[in-house]
Amino acid sequence: EAGVAQSPRYKIIEKRQSVAFWCNPISGHATLYWYQQILGQGPKLLIQFQNNGVVDDSQLPKDRFSAERLKGVDSTLKIQPAKLEDSAVYLCASSLDSARGYEQYFGPGTRLTVT
Amino acid sequence: QQQVKQSPQSLIVQKGGIPIINCAYENTAFDYFPWYQQFPGKGPALLIAIRPDVSEKKEGRFTISFNKSAKQFSLHIMDSQPGDSATYFCAATKETSGSRLTFGEGTQLTVNP
After folding, report:
1. Is A91 exposed, middle or buried (0-12, 13-18, 19+ CB in 10 A)?
2. Could you tell me the CATH number of the domain that includes residue B13?
3. Contact status, residue A107 vs residue A6, Cβ threshold 8 Å
4. Which chain B residue shows the shortest CA-CA distance from A101?
5. At A69, which CATH number?
6. Alpha-carbon distance B113 to B94, whole Å?
7. Does B21 touch chain A (CB under 8 A)?
8. Tens of pLDDT along A26-77?
C-alpha cells in the first residue's frame, strides 16, 4: 500500500513570497490533515478535511494560509505572503475517516525555509 | 494552552538501556493515547497506543504505562538499540469524536552503541 505522498520535499523562499504544497493521501482515506511542525515542537494541526469539506480549521491563520481538497483526494496548502515564522516542516496525514482519526498516517513532510 | 506535556526534551542511553519518556495531560475527556516515532526527514509513524481502561500495554520492546488518576502515561523501550534513535511524540485525543490529536513537544532519543 502506497503511503502519503508530499511534494516538494524542500522549499526555500523569501518573505512575502507565496508557496504551495501538495499532498496525495493513502487511497481510500477520506480524512486528510495538514500539520505545521516547528523545529523542536510537536505537530500542530492546521486544517482537517473530511472528503472535500473542512472539519476543523480553527488553528489555520486564515489571513495568509489557505487549503483546498476540491475532489476529495489530493490537497494543496498555500501560504501567501510568507513570514519568517512560517519556517517549519508541513506534514500531511490521512486516516480512513474522521472516526478513525486516532490512526493517522503521515507523509514525509515539506521543509519550508523563509529567508 | 498546551494540553500534553512531555519530558525529557532529550535523552541519551547506552545500548541495552531502558529509556523512559513521560507525558502528562490535562483534558480528562481524552481517551486514546498514541505514541509516534519520527526519524529525521520522515513523518511521524504510529508506534503503540493505549486506552485508559488498561494500565499497561506491551508491543515487542515497547511498553506504555498508564496512570489514569495522575493523568500521566509513559513509554519504556526495553533493550534499546541504536536503531531506536529517533524523536518520540506522545499524543492524546478523544477517540470517538474524531477530534484532533494533541501532540507533546517530543523527546529526542539517542542510543549509543
Report:
1. buried
2. 2.60.40.10
3. yes
4. B98
5. 2.60.40.10
6. 39
7. no
8. 999 999 999 999 998 999 999 999 998 999 999 999 999 999 998 889 999 9
